[in-house]
Automatic annotation (TrEMBL):
This is ACT domain-containing protein. Residues 14-57 form the A9CJY8-like N-terminal domain. It holds the Pfam family ACT_7. InterPro entries: A9CJY8-like_N (IPR049447), ACT-like_dom_sf (IPR045865), CASTOR_ACT_dom (IPR027795), CASTOR_mTORC1 (IPR051719), UCP008459 (IPR016540). Residues 60-121 form the CASTOR ACT domain. It comes from the Bacteria. SUPFAM superfamilies: ACT-like (SSF55021). It comes from Variimorphobacter saccharofermentans. The lineage of its organism: Bacteria, Bacillati, Bacillota, Clostridia, Lachnospirales.
Amino acid sequence: MSEKNLTLRLLNNSFAVCRLKPEESVPSWIDTRNFYSITKTKEELSIVCTQESVPSDIQCEGNWRTLQIVGPLDFSLIGILSSVSTVLAQQSISIFAISTYDTDYILIKDQDVTKAVEALSRDGYRIISE
């Protein structure tokens, strides 16, 4: 599969990237019906979830949209995330990437979504909406 034959799905919701203290438990306010990601390190508990579910007192960066690389992707494939992020970097679009067992998710600030979709489409990627 060539990366130029890849399909990316634009998810409907707005997302937030939240930072909690490393000793905190995974909170119950996460909307588990939609895409979410939890990463725990020695320094932090990082949560990506729908923006509307985040309480106002939580440290977070909001207004992210998410492009899912439609998978599953084989572990032997090389450079997929690099290729997509290069197209976006050439347009001065910042990303926040999350990888799972099956695929990659690329978060893009809401104000950059149209520009990102246009750039990726011009570069041969197929973009579909959820």
